[in-house]
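Q: For a teaching session next week I want to show students how multiple molecules come together into a single three-dimensional assembly. I've collected the sequence lines for a complex. Could you give me the predicted structure tokens for the whole thing so I can convert them for display?
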Amino acid sequence: MNEVIRAAGLACRYGRTQAVADLTFDVREGSLFALLGPNGAGKTTTIRMLMNIIRPSRGEAAVLGVDTRRLGLRELQAIGYVSENQQLPSWMSVAELLTFCRRLYPTWDEGLSRTLIDAFDLPLDAKIARLSRGMRVKAALVSSLAYRPRLLVLDEPFSGLDPIVRDDLIRGVLELAGEERWSVLISSHDLDEVERLVDTVGFIDCGRLVLLEPLTDLHARFRRVEITTIEPPTTTPALPAHWTGLQVSGRIVRFIETRYAADDTERRGLEVFGGASIESHPMTLREIFVAVARQQRETRR
Amino acid sequence: MLLPFSVVLRPGRPLHDQLVFAVTKAVVTGQLQAGDRFPSVRVLSQQLKINPNTAQKAVTTLVERGILDVHPGIGTKVAAWRPVVSAARRAVLHEDIERLVIDARRIGLDRDDVIDLIRRQWR
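A: Of course. Below is the structure for the complete assembly, covering every listed component.
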């Protein structure tokens, strides 16, 4: 089996609202996959369908080779799941929570659990109810990492947390790095954090997958292009469909090339605008995300 | 555990290339010396907060280039004998020179102008 997650035509409707429509994607074993999208795009709904918390209204998905509607103990013992609003038993202390979890998972690694508790500076005696949000997420993460899951699912793990806690969390997750056959699905808004971590990006907007690509391909094909023209352009020439977000200001023309080819983009840019010079800059995941989201908004209009 | 070499990763360029470059530079400049222990993929990945597969690929490239050696059961070390070093020495400046040449052409300087500028700077 090479895919840890397979979703085919997955859809979810809440009353009249189509939260997710026709979602098809795979997560390969060994991959770190990011599910990105604006608020309300359907990321959490998707993850909840994959975790069998809610039922899809159409389509189907398999996790670790098993239909999500039939996920059983065996699969759940191999999946780590941490969500933004994780419900933990608030009356327990951290130590009690971890003792409780240890009994549920045959692969529990007490050494790893201790390493993480130390790294996270987790107070073992404190009641979960009294923990800060950051500490609660850390406790949830220890309880989901210590059994070395084959698949780790993180739903907005960093949202609302300070940079130090985020840093700790990432390092914690990466304690499992180097593990064979280890895969991660992460939904997040924190693109700078995710950028170095993931290898594949799925972009959801209005419940639909608008982009699904290896991150290296995204980095290769997106460029921020800036042309200095000889004369200020007076009319807008017809542009190839893969140039978006055109802005003109004086002699400067800016746009986003979504299908960059070295030299070719530069040659055409100069040709189309009668340019004197041209520069194309690589884009960060954040910039690519914003460009794609804008493009989507414009096509909806 | 801290990393025993300097590395600042910048967005935009492939992380694999940046990491390979940083380690090569550390070896050429003596930050890393023959026989020094090199961090594991897990430590690299944690410290730089990068995808473990990227860290693994960078290590593989460095082993292929003869900069690192794999010692089964012990880990990875900086290679003892490095026929690649003179090539690596040149590689350290490669990117900067490429940028210099592009910038020079853009503002209309020719090769002699640039060599002249370098000569003056050298003094």
